[in-house]
Amino acid sequence: MRIGLLETGAPPESLQPAFGRYGGMFQTLLGGDHQYTVYDVQAGQLPGAPGEQDAYLITGSSAGVYDDLAWIAPLMDFLRAAKGQAALVGVCFGHQVMAQAFGGQVVKSDKGWGVGLHRYEVARPQAWTDAPSVAIPASHQDQVVVLPPATTVIGGSPFTPYGLLSYDDAPAISMQFHPEFDPAYAAALIEARRGSRYSDEQADAALATLQAPNDRLRVGGWIRSFLRQASGDQA
After folding, report:
1. What predicted TM-score, i.e. pTM, was given to this entire model?
2. Residue 3 bridge partners (DSSP)
3. 105 has which bridge partners?
């Protein structure tokens, strides 16, 4: 399958030598049996047409969908054009920008930062899911608060009720958590943001949660299964 990785952000530069960039993390998560193309969306790179790839995965970003940044509106325009033409998977910022582009609303939540290992209950199992709940690293302050039309809430948590979405009118899914974050990277990112985004107390509490088993590889399997089904649906 041809998968376009729409990189909307990057890890802190100090962490890239050890962990790489988000496009590489997703290639590791999803496996080498696909043909990947990485687009640096912040630098203005977008596919020339939706049919350039079979599927697109939109990564996380430190930006907010409501920020006045030159690359966000063209990305939303592209996602609207691609919806129904290619399979779409959004993660964290990708989850939020899909919701905003398709008629929902995203805000900076007054709940504050969600960071560390978060457990999501799967309220509406799909053909591509395989567990009643999953625990995955999270790192976000923004949240989807108004659902787009024709959207099913597959799962979430008390902190993030709209955490896992499926679009009823297209092969498209999105998730607020980060299955691409292995525990070592999740911990390093928390340490890199200690004292700036997170207090010592928040950072210590989040780091403690990362000691528990997580289901990131299982969710990677969900994405692979979804993409196989979407490819079959489009055939």
Report:
1. 0.96
2. 36, 55
3. 146
Please return the burial class of 134, using the count of CB atoms within 10 Å of its CB with bins 0-12, 13-18 and 19+.
buried
| C-beta separation of 87 from 230 below 8 A | yes
pLDDT tens digits, 147-196: 999 999 999 999 999 999 999 999 999 999 999 999 999 999 999 999 99
Residue type, 208: A
> Tens digit of pLDDT for each residue in 80-126?
999 999 999 999 999 999 999 999 999 999 999 999 999 999 999 99
Q: How far is Cα 84 from Cα 170, in angstroms, rounded to an integer?
A: 5
Residue 229 CB neighbours (<10 A): 15
Cα–Cα distances in angstroms (integers) from residue 45 to residues 26, 48, 78, 97, 192, in the given order: 18, 9, 11, 16, 28
Neighbours of 111 (CB within 10 A): 11
Which residue's structure tokens are 């299964």?
225
Q: What whole-number distance in Å separates Cα of residue 26 and Cα of residue 53? A: 16
Structure token digits, residue 104: 């929902």
Q: Which two tokens stand for residue 101?
A: 């582009």
Encoded tokens for 143: 């949240």
The burial class, CB within 10 Å (0-12 / 13-18 / 19+), for 1 is middle
Residues 173-212: b if buried by 16+ CB within 10 A, e if exposed? bbbbbbbbbbbebbbbbbebbbeebbeeebbeebbebbee
Tokens standing for residue 70: 């030159």
**Radius of gyration of the chain, Cα coordinates, nearest whole angstrom:** 16
